[in-house]
Design brief:
With 134 residues, the protein is of the alpha+beta class. The chain has one domain (23-131). It has helices spanning 3-18, 114-124; strands at residues 27-32, 35-39, 47-51, 57-61, 64-70, 74-80, 89-94, 108-112, 130-131. It has a five-stranded antiparallel β-sheet. It has a four-stranded antiparallel β-sheet with strand order 1-2-3-4, with no helix packed on it. A hairpin with a 3-residue loop joins β5 (64-70) and β6.
Length: 134
């Protein structure tokens, strides 16, 4: 094989892979505004993301989300970290601080243990997450 043929074959492979369809989402549901509940490969990866105008969805709340709530100020979620069913932690997003390219330390708060999250709920008016269907 000549070098020109190898380069052409490599370029064709790159173009073909760039045109390949992305893997289908197992779950993709709107929450409110740009926020979505998504799972890519399995239900254990259900997370909350912020969908950009170009369709990219940036992670906001990781792990396995099993309960959510929202209002005009917050998105809150209860999650099983590392898919450990016996563990439960809480996160919330301050919507006023969120946007296309935020410093994620500012809008995303957590993880909190239950008692810590109750304090945050009372202090800031964060809604209590309720169970979502798997």
């Amino acid at each position: 094989m000549t070098n020109r043929f190898k380069v052409a074959a490599g370029a064709a492979a790159l173009i073909a892979s760039a045109c390949a369809r992305p893997s289908p989402l197992l779950r993709d549901e709107p929450i409110d505004g740009p926020y979505r509940l998504r799972a890519v490969a399995d239900a254990g990866e259900t997370h909350i993301c912020f969908q950009q105008r170009n369709g990219v969805c940036d992670l906001r709340i990781p792990w396995r989300v099993f309960a959510i709530a929202y209002d005009e100020d917050f998105i809150s979620a209860a999650v099983h970290p590392l898919n450990v069913e016996t563990e439960k932690v809480f996160y919330y997003v301050v919507r006023d601080f969120d946007g296309s390219y935020p410093d994620l330390k500012r809008p995303v708060r957590g993880p909190f243990k239950r008692d810590e999250f109750v304090v945050e709920m009372r202090k800031h008016g964060v809604p209590a997450p309720s169970l979502i269907t798997p």
